Amino acid sequence: MTKTPSLISLPLALFIAAAQCGAAFAESFDCVMEPASVIRIGPSSPGVLHEVFVRRGDHVKAGQIIASTDSESAKASVALLEVKSQSTVELDSQQAHVAFIKSQLERERKLTERSLQSVSKLQEAEFNYLTAQAMLQQARVNLASAKAELERQKIALRDTDIRSPIDGVILEITLSVGEYASGDRYVAKIAQLDPLHVEAFLPVELYSADIIGREVYVTPDAPMTGQFLTQIRVADPVFDTASRTFGVSADLANPDGVLPGGHRCKIEFTAGPNQSN
Hints:
6-stranded antiparallel barrel, 4-stranded antiparallel β-sheet
């Protein structure tokens, strides 16, 4: 005879399952705190390295000049183009020439209307006027081109300064003054330490639809101290078959750069989904 389950058995089973799940989330898991990014910095335009302003271990801000290439040629070009872009001699000369040819055209037209000269003289004057107008337009184009070329050369001059695109710390200086810097020969390597990316692998049993957003405590290994609260930002949707784990990532604010990148840590889930202290 089959025994009918009691009414207490089902709630009890759910309670046990919930307790087991809570125990799993209460475990701590190994993790690593990685820099948000590690980038290699080189010049926008290749050139001989003229000066390096930072050393390994220095903290830099976004936009800070960390090195420069030789700028003497660019400076000379800027000086020359500034003179050209400010000079209106050619434009003034062509404007005066147009005014003179126009007055000649009006005189020839009056003489032709009075039949005091041939039509060919008027046609020649009209041609000279059109030519003078074209030369005036070319003078305007030349001046505009000089101003545009000046701006382009100023950009080239600014490009001799090598700036950090991020707040970070200098990991490595790879070139010395006098060496050739280019896209293939970068000058420095910079790590962004705020935020840090906390990477961990969890057992597949912890995977769920609401894993993203779950709050976790991050505890760095010694000699660092403290416990930091953050949230799971990424959960890999593809499992590692061999280890039966999946990767997760969380961003950990590190505004003062107190926590080092590349350091081991532990993560531990908080008591429940999205619960703060």
